[in-house]
Amino acid sequence: MSEFRWHRKDLLGLRTLEAVEIRHILDTAKSFQDVSLRSVKKVPALRGKTVANLFLEPSTRTRVSFELAEKRLSADTIQIQKTGSSMVKGETLKDMCRNIESLKVDLVVMRHSFSGAPFRLARHLKASVINAGDGINEHPTQALLDMFTVLEKKGKIEGLNITFIGDILHSRVARSNIWGLTKLGANVTVCGPKTLIPVGIEKLGVRVTYDLNEAVEQADVINLLRIQLERQSESFFPSIREYATAYQINKNVLKRAKSDVVIMHPGPVNRGIEITSDVVDGPYSVILDQVTNGIAVRMAVLFLLCGTAGTETEE
To answer: Domain check: are 159 and 84 in the same one?
Structure first.
């Protein structure tokens, strides 16, 4: 583990983190990785701490991953979802969270459909806050587990060509990954229909291409992003079939890829749209490794933040 000492109260995004902070999280995650391989999958690191999981947007992988991480650290947990909370009766988010804090909660893990919600929450709480995904803004722990997986499979990040294909415009996963990967020295390319590539994204230090073959040929890692079917009423492209024809990763497309290319996807996967089943389940795919690594990464974040309550708040 690195000698760097963590000082932030919250983890709200990777945009404001320094490279040394990102590396420290990844180093800490490495130290927790083998906990899941033990016969007793638990350590007492957060015994006596209480974590509230505030998921106000649908989630399976992220929510379950955080719950497992908390239990393996021996923390006490509270599960709050919008449909089972007083928010359906009109309670404001601020009031709900102050009520939670009055129960002496040490940390809140928050997913919200509105960009910026965890930032607002963190300003009002003494407890630490982890952003588990806010609107189309950021999803820092997903990006961290993606980077951890790249390190595990490639042994480095600096100098690698990492390509993101799909709906970049609406992807909080892409944004967090771009902030993190560029700080660690990766060469990042984004690819997709012009309507799904944010205007001016090159200013973040990435290369843009609209040609799938070009994007695939030089990639060491390909991270596919889910086509968000719930947004297709906005007509960002003519049809799902046309998108798949132009941008789907399948065996024929992978003939142009490097022999040791790594295929990633944050999930949930739309099989037959952005990727075919034979690639999802094939030898290049590390999608299930990403899920497994998410537990170690989230254990690391929980551990670091629960040890810094009352210190600097991220802006």
So the answer is: no
